[in-house]
């Protein structure tokens, strides 16, 4: 038999053995800190979570977080400045991967748009880089994007993505050039060609579309604030591009050229827009069109003659949509091609006021509303 004294001596070792945690318990997620631009590539390839500090990105270079390992968390702990002035197409920032969590923690990505703006945007003049290319699935949140040279966000994920708590601020682009026009141009906040995407609780201050859906399905745009631009858009829809299953709800649009619009490109064919639902959106201070659906779109100069190669189907305004235009604005403008606006168009949840009534042509099957 083991002596009592020997048993007492063994008790501490026995206790440690029984209490020892498994490897999965003691393992801790590694984190790779980025403290300079030169550390970006190694942080991405490390397979660790990323802490993105206050860094400066060289002119003409991308902050490239593509190819992240599944499940990675990216946290921002400092403001990031993109060096301006060099003409290139961008994007300035790229992120992709599956089930990624990006938390900007309220920090700023500064695109230095003032060094590019010439009033022409992507239509000419200096070659200006697009800023944020988002291809990841997961959650992208809590970031301020300041002074994007042209379009701020290009979203192209194929799996579930939520973008929330983002502020895009290009108000400095409202400064006037020698021709009396704003220097900022084509400054879309969110250009979306994606699947299963939610944009919720974001703020947009710009000179172009707050949202532009160019293709995709299962897209929700909810509780966002849009000011100074061209409003909430689907399109312009080009040939063979398909948009379906869109929910636009709880948004505020103010002091923008247009409120809510769908635009298909003149003579485009093979595409479609279907199953779009608007609810509880508040639109105010609109000098052009409160609601506009047009099938004659050409960049900057619509033809006035609609074509019917893109089908628009099931466009519905549920309860709570209020649209107010200024004295010079038109409440509603619909221009459909022959037989291309079809299905159910229940507009009983739309209320318009101010300005002139506008017009509805092309026999869209609107019910519950009339000018």
From TrEMBL:
Which residue stretches, if any, does this entry annotate as coiled coil? none
Look up the signal peptide feature and give its range.
1-19
What UniProt keywords are attached to this protein's entry?
Cell wall biogenesis/degradation, Disulfide bond, Glycosidase, Hydrolase, Repeat, Signal
Enzyme Commission number(s) from the entry: 3.2.1.15
The record's listing under InterPro entries reads: Glyco_hydro_28, Glycosyl_hydrlase_28, PbH1, Pectin_lyas_fold, Pectin_lyase_fold/virulence
Reactions performed catalytically = (1,4-alpha-D-galacturonosyl)n+m + H2O = (1,4-alpha-D-galacturonosyl)n + (1,4-alpha-D-galacturonosyl)m
Which sites are catalytic? Answer: 230
Q: SUPFAM superfamilies, from UniProt? A: Pectin lyase-like
SMART domains to which the protein is assigned, alphabetical:
PbH1 (SM00710)
What's the protein name? Answer: endo-polygalacturonase
Q: Which organism is it from?
A: Kwoniella shivajii
